[in-house]
Amino acid sequence: MHIELQPFSPEHQDFLFRLYASTRQAEIAPFGWDRAQQDAFLRMQFSAQQRWYEMAYEGADHRIIMMDGEPAGRILVHRGSRAHTLVDIALLPEYRNRGIGGQLLRQLIADAGQTGIPVRLQVLKSNPAHHLYERLGFVMTGEDGMYFQMEKATAGC
User: 104-135 pLDDT, tens per residue?
Assistant: First the structure.
């Protein structure tokens, strides 16, 4: 298993939409929409997410996760002077639960540890990834109706 991070480029846009749709399929399946309705809804939501990320996390490091030369996911990290924020990490279904996300998160934690700042993230309460974050030492710092806010302190915090 060879993981490589490639800088995001506009050519990755179709892949990013496919990735985004794969993370939402189970959520929208019960709506009973046909394929065209699902696609229209997901495209609207994807565009809104992309605009939000660009505005809220200007200058974030956006990478495509490559597995053996094939796009498998993405990781978006905003590196600030007071914290690194994991904005988004997502993998296509066939690459999930194989240790890829954990490996990338451990590297992010190690990088933040070099400067002694925490890693922060927000995760949907319904997302089972919050268990991975807990195993990696993230603790809940807050919550709202939909999300847990979590933080992992590093050396020097």
Answer: 999 999 999 999 999 999 999 988 899 999 99
DSSP secondary structure letter of residue 117: -
CA distance 122 to 133: 10
The torsion angles phi and psi of 51, rounded to 5 degrees, stand at -60, -40
Architecture of domain 3-152: 3-Layer(aba) Sandwich (3.40)
Q: What is the distance between the alpha carbons of residues 83 and 71, in angstroms, rounded to a whole number? A: 28
pTM above 0.70, yes or no: yes
Q: List helix spans (H) across the chain.
A: 13-28, 35-56, 100-115, 129-135
* Domain edges within the chain: 3-152
Rounded Cα gap, residues 8 and 6, in angstroms? 6
Q: Which two tokens stand for residue 23?
A: 């993370």
Q: List, in order, residues 6 or more apart from 10 with CB less than 8 Å away.
A: none
Residue type, 89: I
What one-character DSSP code corresponds to residue 146? Answer: S
